[in-house]
Amino acid sequence: MAKQGLFTSRDKTRLGKAVAKLEKRNKIDLKIIPLGGQSAIGVQNCWLIIHKNFQVLLDCGRKIANLRNYDKGVIPDHFNPDYSKIDFSKPLYVILSHGHLDHILGLVKLVQLCEEYKCHVTIYSTGLTIKIAKRVLRVNKLHELEALVYDFIEFDTNSCFQVAGIEIESFEVFHSIPDSVGLVLTIEDRKIVYLTDFKYCRDSDPQIPKTSRRFQKIGERNIDTLIVDVTGIIKNGWVNPVSLVTHQFREIFEDKNNAEKRIFITTFASDIQTIGEIAELANMVGGRPVEFDGTTMEFFAQDVELENQDQYTNPPVIFVTGSQGEKGSIPT
Ligand SMILES: [Zn+2]
């Protein structure tokens, strides 16, 4: 018996017709080049779109694993995207999907290269992502180059704007950091969807059906290319809802046996959403102040909104660790 292939003969006929249709269409001056980060976690996520004379980077990450002092020391070149593919004599733009370091930390090297080649780069993103990206550039002592070498332009999570003659539509996605977006790029008559990190869990969160409907609508629009590179995308199953985690922490804070104990929590430092929810529970349910320790944890804690912590008198809850919850990021 013949081995069952991935495609049935009907699929192959359909695929053949679709390819023939695409080939008949006018060729356009467009290149899509992955510069790093594909199929891995916590690395240099970055795609280069070249259309005519313009270059647009979709995200600009850098490998962050085991780099606690990302603002100090020498970073190996291969931790960055492959910037050799960029022509610094031509207009350059960056669109950032969200504020995780593996999507924005590559800006440090990019800005340094732009300064070296006397090139200007305009960086587009949503409010929180720009705030974090500016902080990254500040701790790397590049903030004085703002306006001279780089500029930021803010857009809303659900909005339409133009970058280098390309129509861009941003759409909100649910991720562990607020202000995350996916993008639809319309280049001449081609539509490209860029959908990087997002979470899709079976939760009671009202954002899930909203996201689902949005994806469906975008899918109905004759998309030519889908760039999707999400952790766990090829695994079956569902992630646990955040509410399950927060429920467990509520029980820990309510447990009288823990009343005299300090509580240490380790997690990804950039998981601002979950950290914020647990911190609020620590305050309201546990009557505990919240503290942060570890370089990257302190970096992201600036975006966690907390009331005056002095009013809580029980033993503290302390969020510790480095960028990705690695051990030994703070002195014990
Ligand atoms: Zn992410």
TrEMBL record:
Establish whether keyword Glycoprotein is in the entry: no
Q: Which Pfam families match?
A: Lactamase_B_2
Q: Does the keyword Electron transport apply?
A: no
Q: Name one GO molecular function term.
A: exonuclease activity
The Metallo-beta-lactamase domain is annotated at 43-230
Annotated keywords: Exonuclease, Hydrolase, Nuclease, RNA-binding
Q: Which SUPFAM superfamilies match?
A: Metallo-hydrolase/oxidoreductase
The entry's protein name is Metallo-beta-lactamase domain-containing protein
> What is the organism of origin for this protein?
Berkelbacteria bacterium GW2011_GWA2_35_9
Taxonomy of origin reads: Bacteria, Candidatus Berkelbacteria
